[in-house]
Amino acid sequence: MSQRWSSKGGKAYPVRHGAPPPFEFFAEPRPAGGTARFGLTLAELRIELEGLEDALAESLAARYGPYGDAGLPQPDAALRIRVAREPRAYFIEPPDAPEFNPIWLACDGLRIRYLAHQLGGWFDTGARQGQILMTSGTYEPEIRSLENYLRCAVAWCAAERGGALVHAASAVRAGKAYLFYGESGAGKSTLSSVSTRSRVVSDDLSLVLPREGGGLDLVGSPFRGTYEEGAPVLGRFPLAAGFRIVKAETAEVRPAPRAVAFGQLVGNLTFVAEAFKERPDLFASVERAFAAVPLFHLAFRKDDSYWDAIDAAGL
What we know:
eight-stranded mixed β-sheet; 315 residues; Phosphoenolpyruvate Carboxykinase, domain 3; 7 helices
């Protein structure tokens, strides 16, 4: 058990540590949850779920809106996931007091094992398949359990393609995209909420994928965090710069040693950074992907004058 700071409540909360069961655990046959399907498409990255109950498929369609579809099989899907039911209430027992939501991962090469309160599973980015086992517990809504798994799967599929799912706010302005990254409490939601001169894509998780011909694109996704203003952003936009954000009295773009700015970015590669020890090739892929992206520190205050600072820096 360890402690981790959260901006929500401004205090540290316990973090439980553990590991998913071995792959052999998932080999035992379980009944499918239902017959419904769902597909999630984010640019060239597509994930298909089969074996869903009708109500859960309908909830996913409502949650993901223009990014979702009926899940008819496509030959280029990144992952095809079978959903089944596990006859137990929980994989990880709910806490008696508030804590960080436990998500335990294990990396076996291209195969990732996953465990949370009500969902266990795996996916293999090489074989392009996976499995979800859902329990009967009610500690959190099933759609939230599924979304956490899907976020993890998107993060790994993106990384394998030379992209990333970054713990960052993001916005599109004048046809160009920008990342604003930092730990919980750095100000991503604040920076997003005061922007009046851009289309905010997310204040929490931002997806970038390789662009044909080189560079990275910010891709619209449903992982918008707490930001609810405006319509979901669709499409892809060239990534012009990334910023480690810092609260300050005056807005300005500050130079930072590349190694420092990139190291801070790597610390915000959610679901993936912890596995770089087992997958150094993945780290190298991310480093190559961001090699042409300018990285700076951005001081900002609680207004959108940071756009003036970005303009003044020629970005």
